Structures are given as structure tokens and as C-alpha cells.
Amino acid sequence: ETGVTQSPTHLIKTRGQQVTLRCSSQSGHNTVSWYQQALGQGPQFIFQYYREEENGRGNFPPRFSGLQFPNYSSELNVNALELDDSALYLCASSFLGQGNEQFFGPGTRLTVL
Amino acid sequence: AQTVTQSQPEMSVQEAETVTLSCTYDTSESDYYLFWYKQPPSRQMILVIRQEAYKQQNATENRFSVNFQKAAKSFSLKISDSQLGDAAMYFCAYRRSNAGGTSYGKLTFGQGTILTVHP
């Protein structure tokens, strides 16, 4: 197991609601990335945070937002949930630098009804 | 934009045999990293093997090795002496090499290949 943890494990929401997912990075890591993985698909990059600033974003609308805290934990917030937001959400932490490996958390399974 | 394609949705292998998973990618950059990740059912994604594009030598990690063909933009994974614990979804992924830029850590994944290992 990696040192990256995520909470909650599972979550059920209804369309239009808001959700916050949490990630605790591995000790010593200063970068966190979030991915959305639809069932049977590869993960899609949502955004990356480095030293509490967003440092890159994939093709996701503004209702997907995030935070990174001084202790390098992170949150993913999704507003106005849609049915298509149902997916496994993964966070991955790393230390910014050439070639450094990203370590993934176990993910949060979000179901939107 | 970079793309990664895995053309084999499912593969199967007998225990102790060898299997090769295929991956092709597209990029205009000359320096980058390629990865194979393993995602067991309901378990965390873990890195299997990594290849730096500037290195001509193919990476090897125990029973896992790659065949990196830069000109053909091909990056296959060979698993030797397959074990039951190798059963998982395998993802090929790309990451650009430029440190300090935005989205530095962005991994672009393929669609995945489900590997079944038969006893």
C-alpha cells in the first residue's frame, strides 16, 4: 500500500448536490493530482496542485475545484453534480521534480443518482 | 495533445507463461516518460515499470520488461512467468518531461487492458 489515503471510500449523492472528497498525501510530497476514472476506463486528469496553487488543469468544467493545504492534504469539490460525475476519483501525490513517481490513493467511489 | 492507445481490452495467460500487452502513443515532444500501472480489483494503482524516452535501453523490473520503440511510438509490456497475482487492469501512461511547467505531473492514460491469469 502507498502512504496516500482518501476519504470517504464510497459516497452516494443526488443530482444537483455538492460533494467534497479528501486526500492525504504521502509524507514529504508537495504535489497532488486528481483524476476521474469512469467504470472500465483509464483515469482522466482533473487538475494538479503544487504548494497550494493550481498548477494545471484538464478538460473539466469550473464546477470541479480543489484546495491544497499547508500540510499537503487536498480536497476535490464538485458542485451541481451530474449523473456523468459518477466515477472513481483518485488522488496521486509526488514530490515535484524530474522523474519522481506518483503514488495513488485507493480512490473514492462516487455515485450520483 | 498527447494520446495513449491500448488496443487490447482483455488478455489472458496461463500461469507461468509469458504475455505481452501493447500500447501506442502520440506526442510531438522528444523527451517524456512512459509508465505501466497495475490496478488490481478494488485496490490501489501501483507503478509496475517506467521508461525514460531518452534512454535507449529497455527498462526491466524482475519479471516485467518493456519493448520501447521510440520511432514507432510503441511501448509494450512483457510479463514473464505469469502469476495469479498479476491479474489486474493494466494501464499504459505518458507524462511529459519538462519540470516546472504547468500540469507537470499530468499522466495521460490509455483505456486499459484487463489481464486474466489462468491456473
Notable traits:
heterodimer; A: 113 residues; mainly beta; seven-stranded mixed β-sheet; four-stranded antiparallel β-sheet; 51% strand; globular; B: 119 residues; six-stranded mixed β-sheet; 0% helix
Q: What do you see in this structure?
A:
The complex is a heterodimer of chains A (113) and B (119). Chain A is mainly β and 113 residues long. Chain A is 0% helix and 51% strand. Chain A is built from no helices and eleven strands. Chain A has strands at residues 5-7, 10-13, 19-24, 31-37, 44-50, 53-57, 64-68, 73-78, 87-94, 103-104, 108-112. In chain A, strands 2, 4, 5, 6, 9, 10 and 11 form a seven-stranded mixed β-sheet that branches. In chain A, strands 1-3-8-7 form a four-stranded antiparallel β-sheet, with no helix packed on it. In chain A, a hairpin with a 2-residue loop joins strand 5 (44-50) and strand 6. Chain A is globular, with a radius of gyration of 13 Å. Chain B has 119 residues and is mostly beta strands. Chain B is 0% helix and 50% strand. Chain B has no helices and twelve strands. Chain B has strands at 3-5, 10-14, 19-21, 24-26, 32-39, 46-52, 60-61, 64-69, 74-79, 88-96, 108-109, 113-118. In chain B, the strands form three sheets. In chain B, strands 2, 5, 6, 10, 11 and 12 form a six-stranded mixed β-sheet that branches. The N and C termini of chain B lie far apart (41 Å). The mean pLDDT of chain B is 92. The interface between A and B is medium-sized, with 31 and 26 residues.
